[in-house]
Fold this sequence. Notes:
By secondary structure, this protein is α+β, with helices and mostly antiparallel strands. The chain has 3 domains: about 5-50, Orthogonal Bundle (Helicase, Ruva Protein, domain 3), CATH 1.10.8; about 60-110 and about 155-195, 2-Layer Sandwich (Tetrahydropterin Synthase, Chain A), CATH 3.30.479; about 115-155, GTP Cyclohydrolase I, Chain A, domain 1. It has 8 helices and 5 strands; from the N terminus they run αααββααααββαβ. A hairpin with a 2-residue loop joins strand 3 and strand 4 (about 165-170).
Amino acid sequence: MEINTAQIKQLREATGAGVLDCRKALLETKGDFEKAVIYLREKGLAAAAKRADREARQGVLDLYSHGGGRVGVMVEVNCETDFVARTEEFRRFAHEVALQVAAANPRYVDVADVPAEALEAERAKARERARDEGKPENVWDRIAEGMLEKFYTEACLLRQPYVRDDKRTVGDLLKEAISTTKENILIRRFTRWEVGETAE
């Protein structure tokens, strides 16, 4: 099958993958654009896993103000080299993370960051709710685990649906950025302020 440059360019613009990777994806999927996007995403997952143990100490702080100054966000996103930290793609990714934090108000970066006491409180709340709804006691723990998954999706940045495309998570976006830059990338931390909120 013949793959033309317009197809490669379209796929590259949609995914940020390299020209050769886009060509290979289109060849592997016999020119099917949607399947090629999925192919590149899956390849990105493998690339992200390979880079996960590499040290990421360079990066940027992105500041974002929303709603006429009513919400402010600062995020630190790290990568391996100063060269990548200065690229437009990396800075765009950091900005998208800040936008996500402003819009979706996560509390933690990932599941591993949730304190044990917060998890136990959520678990107890779910078990109590199951009890109050008259569910049999032998299913309370299963219900609690399902409720915890919902909690992770709401509270953990990497589990949240991406605000610009709810078919993808922020974790998917991160893996795509790793695949594009060919470096390990970490969302190190974030802070979100909203006018009128009280300090905890």
